[in-house]
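Sequence in, structure out.
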Amino acid sequence: MGSNRIARISEEVKKIVSKLIKHQLKDPRISPLTSITEVEVTNDLRYAKIYISVLGSNKEKENTIKGLENAKGYIRKEIGKNLKIRYTPEPIFELDRSIERGVYISKLIDKVSKRDKEKEEENDHEQ
């Protein structure tokens, strides 16, 4: 199957599930600060790995995953309603920690550059 088609289907699944999380899922466990970072649909269209990012504590992330797992059947049904394809992919939710890692690395870079700047200023004062 063409990779272009898979990419389009992945993007459509991302839109559908994003809308469901924002407007239709009423589970209190699902954090309102949940976003979908990426969706990967397998070539046979059987599974859709949905990477989510949750802004909040580890407990909120855990609860959001549990809430989404609980709503998996409803989410799959809605994907099937909105996508006219032979097989409706089964959603698999994964926590995306790339944003957290990016923030952590950014903080490390800031810390190192600040320390370098301080050393530079010390050297300037000594001369």
